[in-house]
Structure formats: C-alpha cells, structure tokens
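Notes from the 1:1 (GR / supervisor)

We went over the backlog. Supervisor wanted to see one worked example end to end before approving the batch request, so GR pasted a single chain during the call. The sequence is below; no edits were made to it. Supervisor asked that the structure be written out right there so they could see what the output format looks like.
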Amino acid sequence: MRIGVDIMGGDYAPLEPMLGAIEASQALSDECKLVLIGDELAIRAICKENNFNADIFDIINAPDVISMSDHPTKAFTTKQNSSIVVGFQLLKQGKIDVFASAGNTGAMLVGSMMVSKTIPGIIRPAISSILPKENGGKGVILDVGINADCKPDVLQQFAVLGSIFAKHVYHVENPKVG
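Structure output shown during the call:
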C-alpha cells in the first residue's frame, strides 16, 4: 500500500507532518510505503536535522501550499503545484492508494469530490469524528465543520450515513441519531 502524506498542510507544517511521517515509517510494515508530497528541500532538511534517511520515502516535490485562509475551490484550481492538488492527482493516477492531509479541509473536500467522487445518491460528503463516552462507549458525530449550511435532506443523509458507520464499523447495535 502506498500512503500519500501532505507534508505542507497543517498549522505546524512542514515540521510536524514530517516528524509524524518519520515516526510512522518506523511503525509501518514493509507492505506500506510513505509517499511524501511537499517541498522536497524542506523534507530532506528535516530528515537530516533528525538524523533520518530520507531515501526510505518516495518524495514528490510540490512546493506550493494551499493555506488555511485560501478559498478551497479557487485554490484547488489555481495552485496546481500545491501538495493537496498533487496528492489528489497521484491518487487519481493510481500512484498512491490513499491520501492524507492536515491542511485546508475545504480543499480536501473539493479534491475528494473532483477526484474520488461521491457514492451515487449522496448529496454531500461528511467528515466524521469519534466522541468517547463516559461509559467507555463511542459516539460518532457528522459533520465536523466542513459544511457551513446544511439543508434538511443533507442532514437526513448525514444521520443515515453516521448510523450505518456506527453500526458496521463500531458495532453499535442500535445507533441513536440526534
């Protein structure tokens, strides 16, 4: 499995995503290969500063950044050398199997809708998060910040998607929807 990682996305990029990639590379099996997408010079410099061999990664140079303040659709279409756009291009071409970013969530949504597409019939994708419960159980919340205004039909779909997710992934027999 080839895992694409946006090294330029996030509040403390590129340092923190790189430190995470270094740590992950030591924990992953040989069947997983990290593909780092970002400013190649910065990636190699951080590896050197941490006495780590950058050659264990596949590095794809993508020096531009879609910042947190950029408009997602505009940035996705104009910043073609950004780590997010390049990551989605690699995903579309089948050169990576998954793509992760801590960067601009809106740009990730735009990319996922343009490249991965939604399941037929789904109006909007949703981002979920897990909420630990006091009794040790788990709760699932959708949609955590990506959609500013949701109409009733979208909220209804989120309820169905969240319920299916809780039931089949977390084995919650009768998920409560609220």
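Supervisor's comment: The chain has a mean pLDDT of 92.
Batch request approved.
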